[in-house]
Input
Amino acid sequence: MIKTKNLIKIFRTDEVETTALNNVNLEINEGEFVAIMGPSGCGKSTLLNIIGLLDNPSEGELHFNGYQVENYSERQRTNLRKENIGFVFQSFNLIDELTVFENVELPLLYMKVSGSERKRRVNEALERMNIAHRAKHFPQQLSGGQQQRVAIARAVISNPKLILADEPTGNLDSANGEEVMNLLTQLNEEGTTIIMVTHSPSDADRSHRIIQLFDGHVVTENMRQKL
Amino acid sequence: MLKNFLITIIRNFNRNKFYTVLNVTGLSVGLICAILIVLFIQEELSYDKYNVKHKRIVRLASDFTLNGKRDRVATSPMPFGPTFKQEFPEVEEFVRVQGSGRQQFRYGEKEFYEERISYVDSSVFRVFSYKLLQGDPDKALSEPYSIVLNQTLAKKYFGDEDPLGKVLIVGEDRSFTVTGVMEDIPGNSHFRFRGFYSMKTLEALRGSEEFNSTEPITFWSFSNYTFLLLKENSRVEAIKEKFPLYYEKYMKALGDQLGIDYTLVVQKLADIHLKSDLQWDAPTGNIKYIFILSAIAFFILSIAGINYMNMATARSTKRAREVGVRKVVGAHRDTLIRQFLMESLSLTFLALAIAIIVVELILPFFNSLVDKDLALSISETPEILVFSVLLALILGIVSGSYPAFYLSSFHPAVILKGSTIKGKAGGMLRKLLVISQFTVSAIMISGTIIVGIQLNYMNNKDMGFSKEDVLVSIVRDSLMRTRIEPLKDELRKNPNINTVATSNTLIGFDGSKTVHLYEGEEGMEQYALNFSVIDFDYLDMMQMKMMQGRKFDRNIASDTSSAFIVNQAAARKFNWNENAVGKKLQLGVELEGEEDDDGIMKGEVVGVVADFHYRPLRENIEPINFLVSEHERFRRVMYVKLNQDNREETIKYIEKVWNEFSPKMAFNYFFLDERLRENYDSEVRLTWIFSIFSLLSILIASLGLFGLSSFIAEQRTKELGVRKVLGASVSQLVYLLTKEFVKLIIIANIIAIPIAYWAMNVWLNDFSYRIQISWWIFLLTIIVSLAIGICTVAWQSFRAASADPVNAIKYE
Output
C-alpha cells in the first residue's frame, strides 16, 4: 500500500540544516498495523507527516496505493488524503469552537456528503466510539480519553484505508490509553491499515511490526507474530 | 458547509469577545465616518439637480477688467434676459432675479423681518422645478405687487387661513397680494428663496420705459442674476461662441469708451454651488472640501481595515490549529480563504448595521454642526444605503484578504506538531500598518491644530477698526432717515452710549464700486474704486487711525461736496504714497453726449486712513474711498458704540428711542463683531469636521493599538516571566513593551510632518492673511500622538509586566 524509496527530508533554516530523514526505505501492506518507535527527534513524526501527505520529502519516492505521489500538488494531496487517510494526534487537535458532533462531521463536509447521510454516519461513529451521549458538548468539556475517542471517530468517519496515529496515548492515563488502543486494534482487525508513532512499548506490542528509527535512519524492523 | 462556517464564526466571535468588540467598534466607527461623509458629499453634489431641467439651465455672469483691475461677478445686466431670448435661437426662456434684502412684513398684528425674497420674472415656474401648492404658475407673478410665499412663510402669517388674495404690507407701505404658495425650496439649492415678488412690480415702480430700456448704459450695470433655459439639444457653448456678435451690437461702443474688457461667463446651474467663485454670489460650497473629506473618509476606513488585518494576523497562532485540522481532514486552501473572508465580511456587516443605527441617532447633531439637513433612509437615500453596503463589502474583502491568504497558507504538518507559529511572519507588515495609521492620525491632529489657529487668528486679528461693542441697525424708515441727527442726539443722552454714526453701506459686507478718476503722473486716470458714504462721526466711532491729513470736519462746508479720505492701499495704488493729501480725485466719469453730471463728485484728498480689513481675511485689503454726507440717502446703516456696562438696559433704551422716531418700522439689530464672525462660518465648520474626524481616526487607531499591544503582551508572557525571575522590575518591563510602539509612532510623525505641512499650506494659501506654520505645532502633534499611544499601550503592558512570573513561565 505504501512504499518509500530513499526518502530524504531536510529542514533548512537560515543557519542550520537538519536531516530529519535519511534514505528511508519502507514497504507497508494493506491491513498491517505498524508501530514506529525511536527517541525524540529521530524523525518519527516527519515520516508520518510525509506518509500522510501533509509534508513533501526533499528527495526520494513515495508510492501510495500504487501511485507515485511525492510530486503531487497540494490540491491532489488534499484530495487523496481526504478519501484515504485518517489522522489521530497526541494532542487530539479538535476544533474548540465546534461540538463533538461537528468535529466528527467536518471531513464529510469537505467530501460534500449530504446532510442526512452525514448525520447517520456521525451518529454511527459516535456510537461506536461510545461517545454519542456527548455529541453536543464542546471538546473542553470532555476528558482526555473522551477527546481522543472523538478524534478517532473523526479519523474513521470517511472510512479511510489508512489511519496515521501520532502518539495517540501520549496525553492519556493508562486506562484511557488502553481503551484507545483497543479501538485502534479493533479498526485494524476490520481491515484498516494503521501506522502508529509511539514511545510506549506496550502500545507497540499491539502492532504487527515495529520500525525503529534513529537519527533519520531505519535501524531495525521487527516482524511480530500475532499471538 | 455554510452553516459550519457560520457556526465557527459566531463561536469564534463569542469566544474572543474582547477582540471582536475591538474590531467591530473600529469598523463601525470607520463606517460611521464614511457614511456621514458620503451623505455630506452626496448632498453637496446634488445641488440644484432636483430641477428637472437643470441640464438646460445656465446662469449668465460677468468677468470684466477696468484699468487692469479684474472683477468677476455672478450678476449680469438687466437687459440680458430679454435680448438674449431675442438674439439667440437657443434660448427658450429667461428668468431675472433681483434681490431685495431684508424687509419688514406686516399682516394684522404680525410683524417680522424677512429675507431671501426676490423679484423674479413670471417664467420662474416654467424654468425651475419650484412647485406651486396654491395659485396658477402661469399667472401668479404676472401682475405688479404680486407675491408668492413658501409654505413656511404662508403658515407664519396666515396660519390656517387661505393665503390667496391676502394682502401683506412690505416695508413701510407697499401692499403685495399673495397669489401663490409654493413648496419650501430644498436645502440643496444655491438660492434658497423663501418667496418671490413679481418682476412686474419693479417695472411698475421704475416705469415701463426705464425698466425695459436697452440704452447702452443699461448694459453696464450688473444688477441682477440672469438664468436662461436653453432649448432641447442646444449647446451651452453656442451662447459663448455667438456672444461676440451680440457684444458688437449692444455693448462694444460704450464698453470701448469706458475702457472695459468684458467676457461673458456662462455657468451650468448644477456647477454653481461647487465650482463658482464669483463675487456677489449666494454662499457656495467648496470643491476643495469635497476632496479633503473624501480623503478623510478613505483614510479613516483604511485605518479601520488595517486594524482588522493587524489583529487577525496577530492572532493567527490562535487560529493556526483550526487551519491545520481543517486541512488535514480535507479542506482545500480556497475553501479556507472563503471561510476567513466570510468571517471578515460578517464582522464588517455587523459593524455596518451598528453604523447605520448610530448614524441615524447622531445625524441631527451632525446636521446642526455642518448646517445641513441630511437624512438616511431607504426611501429617500437608497443609493447611500447601497453605497454603504458596497463600502462594507469592499472593506470586508480588502481587510479580510490578507489574513485569509496568510492564515490559509499554514502548513498543517508544522502546526499540528504542537509547536506554535511565531507571529513573526506578519511582524514587519504589522509595524508598517501601525505606522501608516499613526501617520494619518498625526496629519489629522496637526491639521486640526492649524485650522483652529488660523480661525482664532482671523477672529482676533486687529482689523484696523473697532468692531467690538458696535450695535448695528439698518434704517428702513425713510422718514427716520431725515431725522438721524436728532436721533443721534437723543441716543447720546444715555451715558452708556459712546458714539453714533451712519453710512450708506455696512462695512465689511456690502459695498459700492464705481469708476473714479485719480491724479496720476500723466493726468487723470481711471480706476474702479470701492467707496462708502459716511457721516462726520463714523471714523471716530470705528476708531480708525489717520496716517496723513485730517478727518472730515463739520465746520468745513466744502467737506460734503469735495473732500475725500482714502485708505493707504489707495494711496499706494495711485502712487501717491506719503503725499496723498491734496491729490485730485473724481467719483464717476462724464460720458460722451451725456449732459447731466449727476453722481459725479470732484474734489481733493484731505486725509489717508490706515488700512483696515473691511472684507474677510481671505481677501486682500483693497483701495477704498470715503466721502462724507448727511443726506438722507446715505443714512442706511446706523452704528451705536456701547459701553460694556448695563448692555441690556442700553439696548432697551435704544429701542425706546427708535420707536419714538419710527413707529412703523420695528427695531432690529445685530452686533458687528458677531456678524463679522459669520464670515468665517465655513472655516468654523471645517474646524469642527476636522476635529471630529481626527478624534475618530485617533480613536480607531488607538483601538487597534490597544488590541495589538494586548496581544503582544500575551505573546510575550513567557519572556516577561523569565525576565522577571531574573530580576527585571515592572517599570523596566513596561518600558520594554512600550518602546517598540513609541518608535513606530515617532516614525509615523516624521512621515506625517512634511505631508501635513504641504497640505495645510495649500489650504492656508487661500487666505491673504494667514498664520505661518511653526514647528511647535508638529511638536505638539508628536506629544499628543505619543501620549495617546503610550496610554493605550501602557495599560496592557503594565498588566502583563505585573503578572505573577510563576504562571508566566508555565505558560505555553
Strands of chain A lie at 2-12, 17-28, 33-37, 59-64, 67-68, 85-88, 162-166, 193-197, 209-214, 217-223. Chain A has one domain: 2-223. Chain A has seven helices and ten strands. The longest strand of chain A covers residues 17-28.
